[in-house]
Amino acid sequence: DSGVTQTPKHLITATGQRVTLRCSPRSGDLSVYWYQQSLDQGLQFLIQYYNGEERAKGNILERFSAQQFPDLHSELNLSSLELGDSALYFCASSAPGQVRGELFFGEGSRLTVL
Amino acid sequence: AQKITQTQPGMFVQEKEAVTLDCTYDTSDQSYGLFWYKQPSSGEMIFLIYQGSYDEQNATEGRYSLNFQKARKSANLVISASQLGDSAMYFCAMREPLFMDSNYQLIWGAGTKLIIKP
What we know:
The complex is a heterodimer.
Chain A: E1 5-7, E2 10-13, E3 19-24, E4 31-37, E5 43-50, E6 53-57, E7 64-68, E8 74-78, E9 87-94, E10 104-105, E11 109-113
Parallel strand pairs in A: 2-11
Antiparallel strand pairs in A: 1-3, 3-8, 4-5, 4-9, 5-6, 7-8, 9-10, 9-11
Chain B: E1 3-5, E2 10-14, E3 19-21, E4 24-26, E5 33-39, E6 46-52, E7 60-61, E8 64-69, E9 74-79, E10 88-95, E11 107-108, E12 112-117
Parallel strand pairs in B: 2-12
Antiparallel strand pairs in B: 1-4, 3-9, 5-6, 5-10, 7-8, 8-9, 10-11, 10-12
């Protein structure tokens, strides 16, 4: 158990809909990262938050948005969903001030858009 | 541009044999970190091992070791005495710069699917 909690684990929805994925980082971790993993592909970085502020942005679509709340949990909002948005969405967290800085991943939220 | 290359899309290995998973990277920075993660069929990403660019010795974590050849920019993962439970996707990833406190964004390779045969 990495200590990172993601909900829901599975989600099936229709095109055009909107969903929210939730992530609680490990206790004490200030950074939250969101990644997308499409079928048989590596991870694509979407966005990073550090202590409530957006720190880095990757290949995140305009239809997607995220935020990190004062209690450090984060939400990833996906709207106007398309078939191609079907993927495994990971949240990861890391501790501040660590030279190694490995990411600890949640179990992922598997989104299926029909 | 940063890049991680894993040239082996898939590998079959006999149980109890050692296996080497290849990873080469491209960076112009002197300060970086290299990671290997395992993704079993259940989907979670599990951290295995880390190598810093300034580390003089190859990293080891139990049955995992990292064959770090800095001049060749390679960071191969070696799994000794493979087990059926090692069947999974394995990803190599890099972070640079190493000492930026708040940004631990990783660049990922495409992964290698390892299947251990009984």
